């Protein structure tokens, strides 16, 4: 339609600090650093806001560094992923020193407008081999209280742990006016509705759209609680996923080649990035039976209301 506004996207879960975006895979350099290209491709696709995930102390520092370099486009989360919570006890100087350093990092980055959320924090009962339950529970609680102190909205991870997760967050909700986002959601309809009732938004990416069961849940996510993400370099929509049936008339994305054949300007096969976020919105629109414009407008409003992303104040 003439005069139609271009679609705009906020990728609220993107791991731009991962070495693959510098051309390094499993410790080996496969091609040149192309982070700037990845960000530019996202911008070209209408993805003008990217929230870079901090998953431990070093990755949170990386996320902040990227947000400084790409000010106004990239913003950071600061926190320790449940699978990395043993970092607290293994830190030089101990867990109290780790907590102090994490707090100071978040405080400084929030004051500078770089950190807009506390996370990625939460619980993951699917990967207890990385961090045992008691460690995850202890440091999820510690980090929830730190988020309250900092008054940052939450960026949350929840896998197969609904009851314990809810038991920890429910008593703290009134102290977190912005609540937060449960990202990369793959749970049941009942779990989704419970989270929405608690005031959380639901983050949808390719991993949220794998199966017919996933699609049935996503169809029920209220538009006013929906946010979208890629979770790149992971969570791409694959041909084997139930969601791929909805991509027949999807917008074109840049060509991808194997990393060994990399050329500047091309995506890398198996390395998801912000330029693919239109596919997530497209699938959501088809599943919900609404327009892509409605999906994009709702997700943009929800993300900028919760996290600011340079578009509005997040302080209460």
Short structural description:
The protein is α/β, with parallel strands linked by helices.
Largest sheet: 8 strands, parallel
Spell the H/E element sequence: EEEHEHEHHEHEHEHEHEEEHH
Low-confidence stretches: none
| Secondary structure: number of strands | 12
Radius of gyration computed on alpha carbons: 19 Å
Helix fraction by DSSP (H/I, runs of at least 4): 25-40%
Which range does the strand content fall in?
15-25%
Outline: globular
Structural class: alpha/beta
Number of helices: 10
Average pLDDT rating: 96
Report strand order across the widest sheet: 1-4-5-6-7-8-9-10
What distance separates the N and C termini?
A: 39 Å
InterPro entries: Metal_Hydrolase (IPR032466), TatD-like (IPR001130), TatD-type_Hydrolase (IPR050891)
Family: Belongs to the metallo-dependent hydrolases superfamily. TatD-type hydrolase family.
Keywords: Hydrolase, Metal-binding, Nuclease
Describe the structure.
- Belongs to the metallo-dependent hydrolases superfamily. TatD-type hydrolase family.
- Keywords: Hydrolase, Metal-binding, Nuclease.
- It holds the Pfam family TatD_DNase.
- The protein has 316 residues and is an alpha/beta fold.
- It is 38% helix and 16% strand.
- It has 10 helices and 12 strands.
- It has helices at 35-44, 57-69, 86-90, 94-111, 133-150, 162-169, 189-198, 212-220, 277-288, 292-307, and strands at residues 9-14, 24-25, 28-29, 47-52, 74-78, 115-124, 154-159, 180-182, 201-204, 226-228, 256-257, 267-268.
- Strands 1-4-5-6-7-8-9-10 form an 8-stranded parallel β-sheet. A two-stranded antiparallel sheet has the order 2-3.
- Strand 8 (180-182), helix 7 (189-198) and strand 9 (201-204) form a beta-alpha-beta unit.
- Helix 2 runs parallel beside helix 4 and helix 9 crosses helix 10.
- The longest helix is centred in the N-terminal third of the chain and has 18 residues, at 94-111.
- It is globular and about 50 Å long.
- The termini are far apart.
- The model has no long low-confidence stretch (mean pLDDT 96).
């Amino acid at each position: 339609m003439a005069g139609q506004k271009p679609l705009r996207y906020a990728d609220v879960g993107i791991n731009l600090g991962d070495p693959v975006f510098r051309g390094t895979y499993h410790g080996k350099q496969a091609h040149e650093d192309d982070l700037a290209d990845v960000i530019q491709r996202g911008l070209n696709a209408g993805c003008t806001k990217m929230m870079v995930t901090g998953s431990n102390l070093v990755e949170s520092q990386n996320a902040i560094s990227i947000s400084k370099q790409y000010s106004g486009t990239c913003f950071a989360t600061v926190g320790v992923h449940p699978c990395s919570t043993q970092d607290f006890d293994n830190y030089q100087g101990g867990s109290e020193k780790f907590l102090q350093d994490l707090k100071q990092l978040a405080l400084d980055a929030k004051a500078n407008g770089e950190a807009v959320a506390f996370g990625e924090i939460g619980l993951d009962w699917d990967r207890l081999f990385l961090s045992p339950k008691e460690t995850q529970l202890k440091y999820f609680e510690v980090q929830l209280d730190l988020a309250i102190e900092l008054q940052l909205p939450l960026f949350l991870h929840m896998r197969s742990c609904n009851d314990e997760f809810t038991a920890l967050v429910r008593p703290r909700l009134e102290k977190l006016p912005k609540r937060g986002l449960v990202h990369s959601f793959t749970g049941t309809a009942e779990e989704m509705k419970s989270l929405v009732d608690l005031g959380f938004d639901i983050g949808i990416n390719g991993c949220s759209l794998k199966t017919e069961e996933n699609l049935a849940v996503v169809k029920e996510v209220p538009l006013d609680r929906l946010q979208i993400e890629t979770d790149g370099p992971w969570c791409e929509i694959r041909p084997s996923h139930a969601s791929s049936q909805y991509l027949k008339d999807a917008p074109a994305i840049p060509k991808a080649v194997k990393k060994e054949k990399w050329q500047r300007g091309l995506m890398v096969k198996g390395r998801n990035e912000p330029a693919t976020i239109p596919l997530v919105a497209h699938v959501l629109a088809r599943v919900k039976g609404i327009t892509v414009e409605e999906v994009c407008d709702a997700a943009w409003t929800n993300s900028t209301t919760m996290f600011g992303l340079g578009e509005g104040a997040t302080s209460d």
